Amino acid sequence: MTVFPVIRTVTAIVALVALVSAPKCLDGQEAPSNSFVNSLLSVDQVVDNLVRKNQERAQALLHSEATRVYHLVYRGFPGDREAEMTVEATYNSPSSKEFTIVSKSGSKLVQDRVFKKLMDSEKEAALPAISARSQLNRANYSFELVRYEPSPLGGGQYVLQVDPKVRNTYVYRGKIWVDGVDFAVTRIEAEPAQNPSFWTKKSEIHHEYKKVEGFWLPARNESVSSIRLGGRATLTIEYKNYRVTDARRSGDARTSPTATESGH
Fold it and tell me: How far is Cα of residue 220 from the mean position of the Cα atoms in its chain?
């Protein structure tokens, strides 16, 4: 699974929920030497590597399975609601996704009109015609290098400002963190480029990704929406127990990696 479907589905969920000073290069550290600065890549080089690596990973991932836990809390008019649903998610290359509900609790309205709609939206978003409109590339986005900073896992990462060239419900604006070695998105802080609902006043999107069997896959997503009538909805998706059971490696060789516990 790539970063693109996750962004599309979470921006889509915002509408459903509505129904119910120059930056430093290294924060907190001494200024880098000129030789270090000169060794950093330009924004064009970072984007070139990001697009190329994303395509390679998308082509290599053939089959994966994972457990997802959807949780939504709404506080406000006309009344508070809360629900949770655990599902088993299966991905088959190039665009097939299936979801099996394992357990559910709380508001049936949220279960049916939010969680199930979210899964349907994700299936739709994987279709090639829709996917092409939201992929993280120069056709859909403008990129600006904000800074280079240390990575929590070691090494460094590039922080880019991304702005969509065409506003629609499939794209977003904000910042992305790109690993300096794998050139994969590791984190996103953004908002939908187009408000998906009149009833939604403001939405914030927070995504984290984790490396699993050589692939950077979603670990945790959070979408916080402020509703015009005064309500506030917080949707979280936790991804667990990844099983990357079929992948294409160098030379198009297929492997069957062992199960990995992580977040999908």
Answer: 8
